[in-house]
Amino acid sequence: MIEKPVIRQPELIHRNILSLSFSNHIASMIETILMIIVAIAIAAILFFFLRNGLKLLINAVCGVVILFIVSYFNLAPIGDLSVAQVIVCAVGGILGAALLIILSFFGIVI
């Protein structure tokens, strides 16, 4: 027995296409909104870390520069610069350089 193909009415086909198109449009819009929210969150997190990271970097560079200036002009008896002194200044920044200078006056040289 041969079955006859079902002929749909053009009006029903048109309604189905419109409903699919509308749902795809809403899904696309929701995806776009979610991507914007994620991008804003990532930008805020990066700003927070880079802002603090930049302060730490500037502090570390200032500490190492102070150590080199003190060593070059022989303002404190810190002797020749060592890797340990540079690491202390890079981690401690200005406070690390001050600590090394104060310790050198008490005869403790790293």
Automatic annotation (TrEMBL):
The keyword Transmembrane applies. Pfam families: BofA (PF07441). The chain crosses the membrane at residues 26-49, 56-75, 81-109. Keywords: Membrane, Transmembrane, Transmembrane helix. This is SigmaK-factor processing regulatory BofA. It comes from Methanorbis rubei.
